């Protein structure tokens, strides 16, 4: 008896099929939402290192869109569904492109919508948004295969729970994503760099700074400052202050946040 090769070597599920299954299992909690997948296609015709982000036509999930706002957003995305993203490409505030470029997830929350200085792109408007790059493990490394975009008609306070849900659905099928965070550069007697989750508290920031500047352990109150959108230097001394700083950085499309420590001695 001849055994079909397919039964000996089962087919490897495609990235789209895995992402599609994750979309089917995603819990929208009965809220309006759109999930769509931007596939990363290697740019063989370009001298610049990068890929074409192409919005897939079949891999998406849309729920409870009574006003048609999310469907309209998807339609506009499909009109420009293929965009090149290289290392030096100016992606502006297009979050899927930014996620592909930085390899870090990002979001637009209610903090952005409430910020009068924040200018949303015309297509996203005042909606909320979460984007996360998707990787497939290959040998000792991982390869970017696309970006998942989650859009809500109303911005949320936080997308941490949604990120964790998608991340867990993907990892069960061999795909993974980077956690949501920002690169922080802190200057004291020299400059140090680390990544901070967007859900971080002020105590988390303090711990990372003190870990790298042990001499600051003696200070009961750590004075950390950053420059806001108008160039004003503002202190960060609470969870709320840190969240405002992180939100402003996302709204400006910055890849990292500059901070400095002011010594009290």
UniProtKB/TrEMBL annotation:
Residues 181-262 form the PB1 domain. InterPro entries: NLP (IPR045012), PB1-like (IPR053793), PB1_dom (IPR000270). GO terms for molecular function: DNA-binding transcription factor activity. This is PB1 domain-containing protein. The lineage of its organism: Eukaryota, Viridiplantae, Streptophyta, Embryophyta, Tracheophyta. Pfam families: PB1. PROSITE patterns: PB1.
